[in-house]
Amino acid sequence: MDLRPEQELLLTCARVRLSFRHRHRLHQLVRQSLCWESIGCEANVHGITSLLERHLRPIARQVCHQQVWREWQWQSLGILANNLRRVA
What we know:
Layout: H1 5-13, H2 20-30, H3 36-46, H4 49-60, H5 66-87
Helix pairs in contact: 1-2, 1-3, 2-4, 3-5, 4-5
């Protein structure tokens, strides 16, 4: 299956835990020229923004646009707050 790098990045991040192989692949993908806005929009549509933010936090902050990164953080915090309200 031929995937754009953005799609592969999203599929790789769409899991709770990353294997060594997945972490290595993420490092390779973030070195490419990616459309971070598109990645953020697709992550939001598929409900994986928190996973995306968590898995990319250690490696992508330096390459991702600061505004996009902040948006992911705010969305992740909003999801967390909503989940805590539901649990309460």
